Each structure stands twice: as C-alpha cells, then as structure tokens.
Amino acid sequence: MIKQYNFHKTKYGDELLIDLIQLEDLQSYIAENPTHSLTYYDITLISDGHGTFNIDRQSEPIEKGRVFFSSPGQVRQWIFNAMPRGYVLIFEEEFLCTFFSDAQFVQNLSYFSCYEVQSSIVLTPAEYCQLEPLMQNIKDEICRYQIKDKHILRALLYQILMLLNRMYTSQYPASHVSQTNRYIQKFVRLVNTNYQHNRSVDFYAQQLNITPGHLNDLVKEHTGISAKQHILNRTMLEAKRLLSYTELSVDEIATHLNYESTSYFVRAFRNNTNQTPLRFRKK
C-alpha cells in the first residue's frame, strides 16, 4: 500500500499541531518513499529546484515561486535529480478549527475545498517576497515556542492561508463557484469520507436531510454532473491512485473498494475511463 505519514504532534514536547520544515531537511523521507500520502494539510513553497511533483496524478514542475497544496489522503509523488529547496508548512485542521467559530474554515479555502481543485499556483516575484518572510516568521516562532504562544502561530497561519486564498482565486477565478452552496461542500466531504462503503445517493441525501432528487439537482447545477456520477468519480480516483502508485492486483483493489466482484469493478472502471484497469496501469 501507499506509505502514509502522520503528524508528529509532540515533536516540541507539548502537543503542537503546526510545523514549518525546510524542504531539503525531508530528503531522507522523500528518498525512502517518494510516493506517499499525508494525514494532514501541506503547503509547500519552492525556493529553488527542478523536477516534477504529482498530486493525485496532477503533474506540475518544481520551480521557484510555485506553491503546492495537498489535503489529507491525497497521493503525492516527488520526481527530481537534485533535492529541491523550500518551505513546508504543515498543520492539522484542529489547530485552527478549535479556535475559530467556523469549523469548516480550512475546507472552505479555495485550494482545499475538494479533491478536484488545481494543486498549485505560481507566485509573482512580488508575491513570493510577501509570502516567504511569513513562512520564516512561523519557523522562528516555533523555535521559541511556548504553550501560551499558540495564538501567535494561529494568527500567522491564518494570514498565510488567507493571502494564498486571494492569490489562488486570482489565478483560478472560477474556483469560488463550487463554494456558493453549503450542501455541495458537505456532500463532497461526506463522499470523501464514505465512498468506499456508501455509493448510494439516498445515503448522502439522508445525511444532509434533503431528498435525493434535490441533492442531485444541486450537484448537477454546481458541477455539471449528477450526484451518482460524482460518487463514482471519487471511487475511480481512488482506483487510479492504487493502480498508479501501488502493486495491488485488480482483485485486491476491487476488494479494497468494496465492489461485489472484480468483474463488476472492471466494468465500472471501463465505463468511467474507456479502458480496463490493467490497460490504465500499463499506460
């Protein structure tokens, strides 16, 4: 299976759910597992380097000024000859959401709103000069961290997240459209959590206290596809991750995704991608 890294909550003694790491200091971890996933949020600012970085099969160049965003569970893959340099800002959602009255603050950010968003942006030189010192401020604050200073770190993290949200929506103006309906946001989050065991529109409609027809109309209005198709697309995304980044057999993937049989999974995959799982893996 794909290597998964958990947050080291007691790295600084007391529990602290935020960290700022120099990218080059992660060389041994990346060399050991260049393909992996995280259980926490990650924002990586590249200051120097070349290569490519894949997030859920979205491939983008490693270059100065590029910022990568990854959410918990997404599959990441580093490809380079020489280790890039930069800043890696990581945090648990709880670090902010236990403080803010909005429990969905992080998930409502444009670049973390759902798994279909663009995984990176490129900063202008002026934007880079604005963001890089804020990253360094967090690193400096953590170095002299005391329990009572958590609010300072929250304030710095909030400033960076909102600044990046402004930059992101400037580069992808349509990214805010999917956030105009709370039901859509909740539906996407529910699917991300439950797609392996529940692929019925009725289940998600019940969780949202609306009718299946109303849910389907909302999803179709905001995404252009039906609720059923969205659930299937999320399932197929996981299948593509496993085919691309693991050596699990098609039978094992079908079982992992709780399909009744391998033939049923293969048929669903072919209908969604116009190719069989084995052909997809070979390509």
Question: Could you give a quick summary of the protein structure above?
Answer:
This protein has 283 residues and is an alpha+beta fold.
CATH architecture of the largest domain: Sandwich
In total, the number of strands is: 10
Class computed from helices, strands and strand pairing: alpha+beta
Main sheet attributes: strand count, strand direction, barrel closure: 5 strands, mixed
> Uncertain spans, ≥5 residues at pLDDT below 50?
none
Order of helices and strands: EEHEEEEEEEHEHHHHHHHHH
Fill in the CATH topology of the largest domain.
Jelly Rolls
Tell me the distance between the termini. 20 Å
- Please state the average pLDDT score: 90
CATH class of the largest domain: Mainly Beta
Beta-strand residue fraction: 15-25%
Q: What is the fourth-level CATH superfamily of the largest domain?
A: Regulatory protein AraC
Q: Any idea how many domains?
A: 2
In helices, the fraction of residues equals 40-55%
Rg over CA atoms, rounded to whole Å, is 20 Å
For the largest beta sheet, what order do the strands appear in spatially? Answer: 1-3-8-5-6
Shape: globular
In DSSP terms (H or I, runs of 4 or more residues), the helix count works out at 11
